[in-house]
Design a protein that fits this description.
This protein is an alpha+beta fold and 153 residues long. Helix content is 38%, strand content 15%. Strands 2-1-5-3-4 form a five-stranded mixed beta sheet, sandwiched between helices. The N and C termini lie far apart (48 Å).
């Protein structure tokens, strides 16, 4: 069945079952492999993408439910918040294994797009459900604060 999606600013038509997870359309059909499979039950955040600017779990979002939305993956993320987050991540050397980082970056970018100067509580709430097996949570929080400062300056 044919499904049309707007991904990273480009309209793409896929041969996909509308009841299949968006994650598999991104990875298998479009070869956008920056979005990772982690748990398959929307509990780890590795598959986070933006749907109309809001972070969602693509492993539990069906392709047929997002045909009229703007989907942004880690490959297409841009703007002031995204640039600041990516720069802070590099400056503080946040990742260890890196597997969860695309989801972490997508969640952090969404937070800073909405809340320019987040508190620790804001960060904890926004990042809740993004699991890092390497436990880099302190560096992630510090990087979000640094990204916020970079956006101001």
């Amino acid at each position: 069945m044919s499904v049309t999606l707007k991904i990273n600013g480009e309209t793409r038509t896929l041969d996909a079952d509308p009841d299949s997870p968006l994650l598999w359309a991104l990875r298998d059909e479009l070869k956008l492999t920056g979005t990772k499979f982690g748990c398959g039950i929307a509990s780890c955040g590795a598959c986070t993408v933006h749907l109309d600017g809001m972070p969602i779990r693509s492993c539990q979002t069906m392709v047929g439910d997002v045909e009229d939305a703007e989907i942004t993956t880690i490959e297409g993320i841009d703007g002031k918040a995204a640039e600041a987050v990516q720069a802070a991540w590099q400056e503080l050397d946040v990742p260890q294994c890196g597997y969860c980082q695309s989801g972490q970056i997508m969640a952090a970018t969404a937070l800073l797009s909405e809340t320019r100067k987040p508190t620790d509580e804001d960060i904890d709430f926004a990042m809740d459900g993004n699991v890092c097996r390497c436990a880099t949570y302190a560096r992630i929080r510090k990087a979000i604060h640094l990204a916020s400062d970079k956006m101001e300056g």
